[in-house]
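Q: Give me a backbone?
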Amino acid sequence: MTRGLDGVAIAPMTKRFLFHSILVVILSAFFVQAETKLPSILGSHMVLQQGEKCPIWGWDDPDEDVTVEFAGRIYGTNVGPDGRWEVHLEPMKANAKGQTLTIRGSSVIELKDVLVGEVWLCSGQSNMEWTVSRSANPKEEIANGNHPLIRHIKIPHRPSAKPENNVPSQGWQVCSPKVVANFTAVGYYFARHLQGEIKVPIGLIGSNWGGTRIEPWIPPVGFKIVPALKANFADKLDQFPAKRGKGVNHQSPLALYNGMIHPLLPYTIKGALWYQGESNNGEGMLYHEKMKALIGGWRSVWNKPNLPFYYVQLAPFRYGKDDDPRLPGIWQAQLETLKVPHTGMAVTTDITNVRDIHPKNKQDVGKRLALWALTKDYGKKLKHQYSGPIFSKIDHTEGKDSLTVHFHKDTTGGLTTNDKKPVSHFEISGKDGKWHPAKATIVYGNHLIVKSDAVKNPVHVRFGWHQMAEPNLVNKAGLPASPFSTSFK
């Protein structure tokens, strides 16, 4: 009778069973196959960025040989000591015909129906996450959503305490009536208009989360490059992200960059679309500093100093009391951000619902963002302008009893109103700082004369400076003017 290590006798049948089990475990460990792995951002139906080198990367056994085959070319590399490998596909022309991308390492992976075109990141809070199914005319839009050259991938909500290298997802989806209902509406309508003009595939990466502040999306380098954020953020990065119970506070600085943006790197993108600000309402020009951190930070981590960044100015909405001053401050901060190179802003004061923080007309929002991209990035000389009137400067005129308001000529094409009524929502003030309604008269095509009998020596002017203001000033293309104030700092 054989005895085990604990001295207990083992019957012959049990002895044979144990020997067989141990042998199976040993042989399984010996013959186990290594596996080539990819991040979820790389998958069938994806769109690769045209005209730029596109990284393809993943993980495998150290020192393993890996080859990547695509579009008639083969790229080879060796897995590093950390188990990671990466190759860079040479720049390619747009291609609407799906091709197979094959990776051979410890195992073989085939990614089917891969296109080459334009890739845009769609980020922000609920108005960017808002889906086609919850926007205007959902039944009609979903039924007509047969656009196979538009592809979309949704990144799940995932805060993280450290920069992640991968994030699980359901992968890339081909736009069709079966799936378009859950696409980001702003991103989809942007892509639809863009694709209709440039005739190449469009890839959308939806990394967004309703109700989130801007700080969680900013990478560490973004906080470091903005002096105004040094004391409260850059000098305290070791304290972020903060915890919430046993998890990570998704509203903490770095949390969503770590979990929802960093896993996308280094996937090549053309540019970024941003719709956020409601959760930072009341910060005034501080929000402008945070926008600079976000834009500069993303440009740094993607190593693209001129990465196009187009954003949506918040729509009018009744946040609190009728005279709540917070929203105009965010508008001014967003207007100021246009001074950052390679940015653009879609104004939405005319397509709103002051009782609904999620205006349903996402079609025009997406189109207005696309106008910026078509003009600035794709060289389209459009018959219509890409932006509404943007404030430039004021002059004192006519014995200092009025002000002349100038707008940028390259973004207006002439001033008018969208309701054929006199220009609305202008106010002026004197040195006493008291504001009075003012009459605004269009002159010289791109200028306004603004005056009020109550202000003899006007100093400042403001326009649309009320959270529920829906002013009627537009350019000849019907695009609205942005609210502004010459006294707000």
Q: What stands out?
A: The longest helix spans residues 12-31. Residues 1-8, 10-15, 21-32 have pLDDT under 50 and may be disordered. The CA atoms of residues 292 and 339 lie 10 Å apart. The first strand starts at residue 2 and ends at 3.
